[in-house]
Each structure stands twice: as C-alpha cells, then as structure tokens.
Amino acid sequence: MPWCPKCGTEYEEGVQTCVDCHIALVDKIEDIVDWAILLKVKSEEEVSKIKKYLNYSHIERIKSDKDDVNDYYTLSIPSQQLKEARKYMSVYLSHELDREDVEYLVNEYETEPSEDENKIKDSHSSMISFGSVGVISILVGLLNMLNIISIPRFNSVLLSPVLIILGLSFIWIAISSYRKYKIYQQTSNKGKSNVDEILQWFNAQYTNEALYSKYLANREETDEGAQYFILIDELKTELVNQFPQADPKWINTAAERVYDQLISYAQEASELR
Q1: Which pTM was predicted?
Q2: Which of 59, 95, 165, 212 is geometrically suited to a Cys-Cys bond with 54, CB 3.0 to 4.6 A?
Q3: What is the pLDDT of residues 116-152, one digit of tens each?
Q4: 209: phi then psi, degrees, rounded to nearest 5
C-alpha cells in the first residue's frame, strides 16, 4: 500500500499523490524518512561538495531545499544519522569551507571559554564605552549650563538638561554592563575552577603513558579528523561518568585539554623513537 512520506497517510493501490500534501507517495512505510536539518550553505557548489563527502562517509540519503527568500540551501538527513553526520561535518568544515559561508546548527563540542569570554569582553567594552560617553555628556551639559562653554545653533537652556539626562542614561547602562561583567567573570572563574578540578582528577588516574596506551596506541593510523572526534567522545564519556552534574562545556573543555596533552605526549614519544 502506498504511503505519504510527509504526513504518513496510507492510500489505496493506484493512488499516486497525497491529497493533503500534494507530493508523490512511496510504496513502503520504511521509505518514510524523518528528516533532520544538518546545516545551511549559500551555494549549489557547496551543496554538491558536501553531498559527495557525506556519501563517501556512508551517509547516503541527503535532501537539499533551496530557500529563495534568504538565498541559501538547507541540507537534511535521516534523523537517526544526525549525530554521526555532525561529526563528519565538523571535520569537513574545519578543512574545506569558510565557516562564514556555513550555518552550522548544533555544536555539541562547545568549550567553556568560547561563550563566557565573549560575554566578558562585550560587557567590559559596553561598560567603558557608555561610561565614557556618559561622563563627557554630563560634563559638557554642566559647563554649558554655567556658560563656561557654549555650543552654537543650540538653545543652551534646553541643551544642558538634555545632555545631563542623556549622560545619566549612559552611566546607568555602564553600571548595568559592569554588573553583567562581574557576573560573567565569576561564572568564567567558576568554570575554570571546575575544569581544573576535573583535570586534577583525570591526571591522578592516568600517567601520560597509561593515557596513551588506553586511548591512542591502537589508533595512530586513523584519519586525524576522525581520530579527534572518537577520542573526544570517549574522554567525554569517562568524564561524564565521574562528574555527572558538571556543565557540558566544562566537560568539553577538560576533554579538549586532555586530548591536547595526549597528542603532545604521542608526538614527543614519536620523536624519541
């Protein structure tokens, strides 16, 4: 019996199109695919390259849809292959494409500093910028009110209060930014402290030699990109088991540092052979 791949409605033999969705029916219910969005790209050439790469990586079913309004292509794959495909695409995007041309929808490997440090920088910048402009606006308003300076083409009686009020508004924004800056800084420091705690535990469990023997000894011939994600996932699994309540970003950061430590040891050991 034919089925609609979109709404899942079953039809009588001989029917070829779904009356509700207006798309072609499929012969088997197994052909109905639960599509999940993998990423969005800006050119048809990139779509072709990504499809070939995924096909080579044994991801066979790929659907691309053109969004004419926003001028990009959405690539979707069966949902049960989404996690595997994300790993392949992380490797591919890091080597093949300019990330500015790609919207990568999910980053399950985000590390702790990436977001917190940006927030710290942004809030600090806002604090300095709005604070400086606010102080200058108040000073100019007061000097204008006292007739120490005058600004041509403006009514000094009206201008001074406006400048002072505007300056106070900027000062208030600067104070709010300072409060956010302190909160983000405390969060970041807490994250770094937790990462250090996780690393101390891990380093107490393994010497570099034991770490190499467990995680890398039998994988040195594996493709570098695939090796990275395999090891990161295995390290994350061990750390999550030991620290189940830890923020995923702390776990990711600790796993990244252990990975770097492992690769450095492997390179040093290789040079000594």
Answers
A1: 0.46
A2: 59
A3: 677 788 889 999 999 999 999 999 989 988 888 887 7
A4: -65, -45
